[in-house]
Amino acid sequence: MGVHDGHRERMKKRFLEQGLDTFDDHNVLELLLFYAMPRKDTNPLAHKLIDHFGSLEAVFEAPAEELSKINGIGENTVTLLKLIPQVSRRYAIDKNKFDSILDSTTKAGDYLVARYMYERDEVVYIICLDPKRKVICCKPLFRGDVNSAEVSIRKIAELALAKNASSIILSHNHTSGIALPSREDELTTKRIKSVLDSMGIALIDHIIVAGDDYISMAESGILG
Fold first, then answer.
1. What is the pLDDT of residues 109-126, one digit of tens each?
2. What is the mean pLDDT of residues 198-203?
3. Cα–chain-centroid distance for residue 85?
């Protein structure tokens, strides 16, 4: 048994019995790093990561190339640290499987917030719904500016028709952290709604997500 084995077993037992609520951020990282560094004291590296990036969240959100610059960090550790937020995101999405019925703004908002977890770029999503507002599909349309109107309208119309959607919900995120629609957001959404109306497909909402916050253009009266 190595010098650190007893400490590791105590840490694991503490986690299994108490969860992470009693752990400081560096303890969380120390425990996690056990699985990338099986025979090394991970406490100093955990402290180094927190000190360098400033918080546990910042460590998980750091680009792989920045993590690799930290002395003592190898490929396995980088992979593990980048895997954690993606697993968290997948878990959150899995809690809202495609049998979801998005018949309220709250349900739609919560559904979409999970999609944008740890997303660093602006991404436009379309949710196609059946007559009972059950999710047929939820797909990213593209990364970039939602106000690229011609591209948006063509892709949205094509997918809505291909999925035989009765209605759709659009969404994009604001990486600024502020979930307020711009004037261009409003104008583009109205143009998209006009085209979809002519096709007999209802645009029931356009939801803007910023972190855990979101705003509904339908509830704000923007869609008319």
1. 999 998 998 888 889 999
2. 95
3. 9
Backbone angles phi, psi at 97, to 5 degrees: -65, 175
What is the helix (H) or strand (E) element at residue 216, kind and residue range?
A: strand 213-216
pLDDT digits (tens, 9 = 90+) for 61-92: 899 999 999 999 999 999 999 999 889 888 87
Q: For the chain, which residues make up each domain, given as ranges?
A: 5-93, 97-216
User: From CA 36, how far away is CA 23, in angstroms rounded?
Assistant: 19
Confidence of residue 1 (pLDDT cuts 50, 70, 90): very low
For the chain, give the longest Cα–Cα distance.
Answer: 72
What is the CB neighbour count within 10 angstroms for residue 64?
12
Angle between helices 75-94 and 25-33 (to 10 degrees): 110
Q: What is the DSSP letter of 55?
A: S
In this structure, which CATH number among 3.90.180.10, 3.40.190.10, 3.30.1490.20, 3.40.140.10 belongs to the domain 97-216? 3.40.140.10
Distances (CA, A) of 184 to 87, 147, 154, 209: 34, 6, 18, 16
Which pair of structure tokens corresponds to residue 67? 């993590």
**The two structure tokens encoding residue 58:** 């910042």
